[in-house]
TrEMBL record:
Record has Signal as a keyword: yes
Protein name, as recorded: ABC transporter substrate-binding protein
Domain Fe/B12 periplasmic-binding: 23-281
Signal peptide: 1-20
Stored Pfam families: Peripla_BP_2 (PF01497)
Signal listed as a keyword: yes
Keywords: Signal
Tree of life domain: Bacteria
Length: 289
């Protein structure tokens, strides 16, 4: 009996030491954010270029973009665990890393709260942080329930469009299957583009006018460097005929929220967005620092 107990304790100790010595590479902004939230940011030896939150992640060595990893670059960092999404690649590099006995884990990146909860549970187990994972889940669920309860006071939900502008090109609207659409839904904002657009797509002015958004939401980086609603209208003239533009109703959100799928900050971000979209409820909606 004593021998079995000793062996069990030794196994636990060795497992703990092994986990503590893990050299983790994170390929994906939302994954990196999750690892920091679980308290294992100190075990990260590198991240991909989409990992821009928290700030300390941006100071780590980079392995390129998560869809086009360099085999030599990853190997040189001697990782024991590579975490990323199902989109991580290219496939031949992933296969070669696995053949070298590197633990490569690709997790689904569906942009739903249910998928996020599943991802938190799985990643917490992989890095031996199950209690921290449970605490993170509890916080997300509590905030989501509280926000949903507060939004019941909204009699007429706003219609909004979420615009992004990759590489300075013409603005694109967010439809279904996007982190932006999930964020809007959590914040109680109707997305008319979700009925006809999947992913991100440029729209003709007529389509945008027909949607009649009452609020325009953009990543905050779009309104830096002296850019403004006027700049946006110059690139998408149809905007000027929307109620949102006529009433100058534009809300910015943290750009890092949209990188790599839905991360653990999404409900807090939805609280902030809802508070700005529905100023009459502002005092009732939890203020997030």
């Amino acid at each position: 009996m004593k021998a079995k107990l000793s062996a069990l304790i030794l196994g636990v100790v060795l497992s703990t030491l092994l986990q503590a010595q893990q050299r983790i590479i994170s390929a994906g902004g939302a994954m990196t954010e999750l690892l920091y939230a679980l308290g294992v940011g100190g075990q990260l030896v590198a991240v991909d270029t989409s990992s821009i939150y928290p700030e300390s992640a941006s100071k780590l060595p980079k392995i390129g973009y998560h869809r086009s990893l360099s085999l030599e670059g990853v190997i040189s960092l001697k990782p024991t665990l590579l975490l990323g999404s199902a989109e991580m690649g290219p496939p031949n590099v992933i296969q070669q890393l696995q053949s070298l006995n590197i633990n490569v884990q690709q997790l689904p990146t569906a942009v739903t709260i249910t998928a996020l909860e599943k991802r938190i549970t799985e990643v917490a187990k992989l890095v031996s942080k199950e209690p921290q994972g449970q605490a993170l889940l509890a916080g997300i669920r509590a905030n989501q329930q509280q926000l949903a309860k507060q939004l019941k006071a909204v009699k007429k939900p706003l219609k909004g469009v979420f615009l992004v502008q990759p590489g300075g090109r013409s603005p694109m609207v967010a439809g279904t299957g996007t982190s932006a659409n999930t964020l809007m839904a959590l914040a109680g904002i109707l997305n008319p583009a979700a009925t006809s657009v999947k992913g991100y797509r440029q729209l003709a002015s007529e389509s945008l006018i027909a949607m009649a958004p009452e609020v325009i939401i953009v990543p905050d980086h779009m309104f830096k460097n002296s850019s403004s609603l006027a700049t946006l209208i110059a690139q998408q003239p149809g905007l000027i005929q929307t109620p949102a533009a006529k009433n100058n109703r534009v809300i910015t959100v943290d750009s890092s929220l949209l990188v790599g799928g839905v991360g653990p900050r999404v409900v807090e971000a939805a609280q902030k967005l809802a508070a700005e979209a529905y100023p009459d409820l502002h005092s009732a909606i939890v203020k997030v620092p």
